[in-house]
Queue: 2 jobs
Job 1
Amino acid sequence: MITEDVGTFSDTVEEAASVEACTKCTACNTVCPVARSTEIFRGPKFLGPESERYRSQPEATVTAGLDLCSGCKLCEVTCPSQVTIQEYIRRAQNKGAEEKGRTLRDWVLGHTRVLSQFGSMTAPLANIGNRNPVVRWVMERVLGIHHKRPLPAYQWMTFERWFKRHRAQAPTPTVSNASMALKRRSRGPTGPPREPGREKRTVAYFSACWVNFNERRLGEMVVHVLERNGIAVTVPKQQCCGIPAVVNSNMDLARKYGKENLRSLSALPPDVDIVASSTSCGLMLKHDYDHLLDIPGAAAIGARVYDICEYLWMLHEAGELKQDFEPVQTRVLYHAPCHLKSHGIGYPAMRLLRLIPGVVVEEVDEGCCGISGTYGVKVEKYDLSMKIGSRLFEAVKAAGSDSVLADCETCRMQVEHGSGARSAHPLEILARAYGYR
Amino acid sequence: MKADIAVVGSGLAALVATRTLQQAGRNAVLIWPGLSSLYFTYATVDVLGYADDTTVQPVEQPEAGVAQLIADHPEHPYAIAGLDALRGGTALLTEWLGEAGFKWQGSLARNLLLPTAIGTPKPCCLVPDSMAAGDLRRDEPIVFCGFSGYEDFVPELAASNLARAWGRGDQTVRALRLALPGFEPGRLFTSIDLARSFENEAFRRDVATGLRAVLDDGTVRIGMPAVLGLTHDSDVHAQFENEIGHPVFEIPTLPPSVLGLRLFDRLRKHIQESGVEIIWAAPAHAAEVSDGRCRRIHLKSAGRELPIDARAYVLALEDTVDGAMRAGVHDVIDPFFHQTLAHHAVPTERTNESLFKPQPFASIGYPVTDRLQPGGEDGRPLAENVFVAGGAIAGYDPVGTKSRGGLAVATGYRAAKEAMAA
């Protein structure tokens, strides 16, 4: 039983400190992907609520083992008493780093946006460097980034620049060959062209660093799908969401980023919905700015943030999603990212894809992929991260599928690296059904 | 989000209800506040172990026992759900276990009598194959095998307790302890760690060799804590038995229960892979009712509320562990309609000081109508299209009568049937 505020002082104790709601049931330890894969990790129960009872602000934090937590949040998803296990671990980790000082790698991995900006500016060169064994050897020695971990390729043309050009283009819709073909087969119209100023809804797209510097194509697809449904898209000024800083023990930096984003998003008209295509960045905006980072005003913005598939499904239920899909004959696997489970919205991507004729989508339910953002990049965690994901890789190989869908970009990197299959965002299939090529 | 029928809960009642809906071709969505009560409370599915919580003589025929209970207590949740629901639900569950890859045995006709971790005989109805060799109606001598450093199962305690209740003729009991490779003194571990290790063939062979060395050649069966594999239980158990050369039976231990985890994980995976969507990590906290029908329930998802609009709802929460109720100092309140389910001048009224006496809090729950709808003070349904299943139903204590599983199955099945008709 969980105490809720029913009016007396003692009833609010557990809500104020959810550590008191922990019943020591150990469910979190049983689902923890790290504890499953290494016996040196004590598990979320011990490092979260149990250790929390012994932590106090003036005392030095005992950080042994805290850095092994990958931040997947499955412990919180699992907890029957809604204890914020992961937040206790993160705060303690951060305090430990403040006391002991941060490493160079903490700084570098916490500033992925700065790295990406640099990588994008020097794009072809940076990508060659990232694949060069000598450079990788140096990176491993100096930064502690494992030489086997493929690093994402940067693109010179950022999404934001593409979007500016896209906006500047004449508002005439681009009718692709595929939809022309569709018309010839007289399957009905492919939907109205883009009519600026006449859209019923406006969406602010939080494209995040990944789409901006590494996978512009995904951003183009998001814009295509939204505009195809008569929605006006804007791309507000944005900063890194802050999650790389959170998981690399720099919550002050994450808070600074969060405040910048909130300043920009607060300037949007109140009827503009905010949409994100990165699972973890969306979760930061929705939940962690308010709960973990305690940024004032975050709750009001968080309530306006949607995952892209969640948003599209909402349109579908409101009867606003165009159903003139071109059939896509494909059989794909779907991997649900851990952070998607934390959203508490189910699996809207699977629901959406099942609307499209020809698509057969099956869930591969083997838990965490193991990469957890920058976790699996680190030299001492690479092997562990591959071990965590091994069940998923085996299942993908056993299913004989060469295509795995996942909403989260680092899950996609890990699935490709571990299983050899190609991995894409679920939107890719939807965009294809809407004639995007 | 729209749904045909929404099932809230993650225990056995919720899973049986969802499976019933799925088999009828209905589109169910399963909503979880957190992990399942299966983790904590289930190893076997017990239909009726004792006629009431004061009797000492176990029930031999659970179906006949439930029929008698229904005749004696027309207000009991078994009576409301009906004997047909128990039969139908049990048949559905048994078939499902087979499809999901489990090897289980037992029937409503007869209970097995299995030793617990403290050596007391416990009547059980449906049990995993890996437990069945422990049946105390069989006469072979028992050796309880524990492990050094593992305190959730004390073989000496189990042996001395069982010897008192069971010990005629061939029925001898003894205890031994093995040291396990890799589990040196000082290492902190749980049954989950042991179960993972037993999936490793080399580890298992080492343990088997160690165990064979201390056993005589005579007929004997080995009782071990339930740690024979976390996911591949039946294989691990069969292989271990082969390596030992004696029948081996598993005994459920304290949470985290490996048996509960196996059951829950595989049923969940099976139902999810067959197309049922699960919404994780979204506790439900309010219901909107108008004109006598529930129009939507509200879930706490990240950042905002997620309303679920369904035609009907099954509230299959399993009391305390699933967050079915909110207990304050004086009142216990339900999370949907915010009704006061129980009022106490002081919280200690909810508990009995003796741990082994019936606990008043166990029978707190929703009063229900004859169709399992949650009832208001006037006895009329709070909402026509909402049905309650499992431990959240008021008026029974599943612990003392060993009936939690059967009630979850019967009420989950019946609630699903009612939801389809609503």
Job 2
Amino acid sequence: MTVPKSFAMLRSIVGPLAMAALAAATPSPARAALHVVTTVEGLAALVGEVGGDRVSVESLSKGVSDPHFVDANPMLAVKLRNASLLVDVGLELEIGWLPPLVTQARNPDIRPGEKGRLTAASAIQVLDVPTGPVDRSMGDLHPQGNPHFLNDPRRGLEVAAAIAARLSELDPTGAATYRSRLEAFRGRLEERMAAWDKELAPFRGRKIFTQHRTLTYFLDYSGLVDAGEMEPRPGVPPPPSHLAELVEIARAQKVTEIVVENFYDAKSAEVVARHSGAKVVQIPGDVGGDPGARTYVDYVDEVVSRIVGGLRS
Amino acid sequence: MFRTWVAACAAVALSAPALAEEQSNEPPTSTDADRARLEEEIRSELGGAPSKAPGGPAVAEDRAAAQASGPGPTGGNALARLLLLPDVSAIASFTGVYDGYDVANLSPDRGELYGPKGQPTFILQEVELGLQAVVDPYFRADIFVSFSPSGVDVEEAYATTLALPGNLQIRAGQFFTPFGRMNQQHPHVWEFVDAPLARYRLLAQDTLSGPGLVASWLAPTPWFLQLELAAQTTTPFDGLSPGFTGDARVLQYFSLTDAASVGVGLSGARRREGAPGAYRDLGGVDVYIRNRPPSSRSYLAVQGELYLRKFQDTPVPGGEPGQMESGVPQNGWWTQAFWRQDAYLGYGVRYEEAPAAGASAPGTEQRLGGVLDWYPSEFSRIALETSWDWLPGGNGGFEGLLHFEFGIGAHGAHPF
């Protein structure tokens, strides 16, 4: 039986393409024991610190993105399809995009409560948990508590420890590796924390403004004090009266710095700065949020040095 | 005898790790193969239990999150019952309509968003009540009930499997037919206030939907490739008897850059029309291109859909807008571009062609429209949509829609 020429040609094109597609789709277990997907780059950096070459890791969002508003692009479901472990922040940070992706990925191992799902918030003490009545006249707030905890290195370390424990559970033969890498990371981070503590010490008690309640944990760590937010009701544009009030607070309480993550629009901060004489300091919102914030330690380093730099000048 | 032997072997196999543990302080180091063998033995002893138990034991951290971390109040937590309530949400939509020509007679069959000619009219579009929760380790449920002046309608009420093997997923219940992109969306997700005319005229007077089940498979490809096969009983237009409908859809998404992605869908459906050998065929192509830099809330989305319809041995007139004779294909299409400037504002433009309806001369109706969306927050929207309609024969004119919607409660995130 002869094969028509056109069919043979089609086969010669489709065959290699299909092979290439399958090759690209197949994870490379020879190199990594586990494939970990995280929702934000900060968590991916911590997984990389603890997992080293034993894990492959990728983040669903970029460090330059506002993690509240990531598109639930089906391409992200493809990343989740083969994940051995999904590490998310929790506290409803990803509520607007992660749940449909997890359902779409058809990977039962990464559903909430499964072994392949680690919610980082479960490893830390959560702040800003509302205790009184809550409704959305207060903006799009997080009723379970503040999810922006990766800017506090103490909590970053706690999350790294939880990641190491979970990796060990999923890959018992690598437990010793994860343990030793965690300790090495702890050593490096604590060394840097000693240096950051020295840098921050002269400014403890100093008041700053923030864009949104994203620095609660960093303030808790650094001893700086929040004198107000540009956007007191998350997701609701601040009225001019609020910005005017901040200008008055800045003048009365000598607030000289407004810290804004670089994924936020700094327009309100610039208005307040212009009228009050305060300085706008932009910081990366996460690992990867700035060329200088490639690792977790570098990220916190950038946050500390820029905030301290702004207070010094 | 054989059973006794198997049981004895299984007992030895099960006790072996325990013995090893007693003899050594080293943790057991069973390989994946050992574990798989043990699971297989236990499965056969249990008589073919599910191969993979979803909802397995949560590990320490998650248990800590899910359970009280310290001693609870005397008598337990009286509010714990609230934790088991489904997510409840309501989305209410109201629209003020105005047209400068006679839409009610010359261009009906477009949902319910029109009033008498030249007379501003306010319409309660709908109040959509959403109930969403995980049912058990095997299913989650999504229920959407629409309350409107025309009555109460169960728009969707379906369960979705959570743990089928082989990248498979099944939805069963009442659901929007997986035909095209827009047919599966609830109106509050649209950038425009109303759906394109072609969708109302060629697919269904509201949404092509019905009870049935849909199986979908996510292919193991580096891009997103999903195949869906649905079997439903649909009633796309008033006056029709419910008819069995088979539907297939292929949806693919590709990333072009960090910012841009493109989705292409192909849909096909056949609906039985009662009489033996009578049916209608539906075909559709949908394209969605979105460009959103990762550091920005702004995005540009360009999309469009083409619908094809053909009847076979179905009586004419069948009471449907623009229904053609047996074997004659019809088509309609629309395309739109929407620019979301920031969190609060968006602008769109849309062009569409559809078979004319009502008392209009037969032929193709064209409409060009624009929309301005203002989002005071994530939970409310005010939209102004204006269009110009060209009917065959030279009629047509201005249409305006002023729309307000708000959502309360915990409404699950929407797919892309």
